[in-house]
Request: fold
Amino acid sequence: MSMNTELLGNLICPRTGECLCVAAGDSELSIPLRQQFGKLGAPTEVFTQWVFNKSGTFAYPVFKDVLILISDMAVAWPQKEFLSADSKGLSVNPFAFSGATNVCGNEECRRIFNFKTEQFCDHMPYTSQMVVEFMSADGNILDCLSLRDSCLRVAVDLDFWALFNGNTSGIHKVCADATIACFGPCSIDCAFSNSMHHIPTQSTRFYRDILVSLKSGGRFVGIETQGLLAKLALNMVLCMPRFAMPHSFRNIDDERNLLREWLRVPIEKRLTDAGIRSFDCNKTLFHTVYSFSKVQQKCLRSP
Ligand SMILES: C[S@@+](CC[C@H](N)C(=O)[O-])C[C@H]1O[C@@H](n2cnc3c(N)ncnc32)[C@H](O)[C@@H]1O
Reply:
């Protein structure tokens, strides 16, 4: 499947900030490049195309249907120089992740999944044309939202294998770091995430970037494990051996350090620190569902 051109026009090169396009012609993966990506663990046998920044100076590979939009993985063109010669020089290797997908194995997990899906549906305009899930893993939630057929659904995650192996249909997959803007100004109708706790120290930057990337009137919706019971559960988990833990607490245990850091700062403060003055926060005992919109304004996009 070749990359969707509407999506590419809205993504930006993490090195130059230009939008992206597929160039005709020189799409061959030369042998040295095949080796370089292969060394990092990429499935080079399913390489499909190069995606270029507008001026044609950097190229990013697509493996099957997953675009690798990571600064360190940019290939300088036309020299075809791989910018990071080995995995030691990389700040992150997307091919070294575990590929864990959101498999709901038990009733409790399914209940939480359904709760989140319903909340996201309730808070998202059905008419959204470009909907992006950040830190999506395989994009399972995105796949279950009721949105217009013509809507472009985009899953963004650093874990290449989660995107690659995900059992989702009709989802566009971008392997990118959520802490570095990868969408251009005024390009997204609706963005959402239930995993902001994975970037607890970079939320301010993320929310600021999202405000820029949202179209005028566009919305961000988030759900996080937050609130009194979440803190209590975390404290219980911190002093409980894993074998004695109820199953529903195991996710908390897996992410204990991230959650501890995330729960130190209330969401309201994170949002106001990012300059977002108007937002909605609905709290349940375990979760906070929050959203904010970009004020209606004329969105100026560079040509
Ligand atoms: C627990 S999973 C949640 C997946 C998804 N939100 C869901 O509920 O199905 C968290 C995901 O965040 C991703 N992640 C963590 N830090 C990230 C970052 N800086 N940029 C993009 N993805 C990131 C991980 O790779 C992982 O797939």
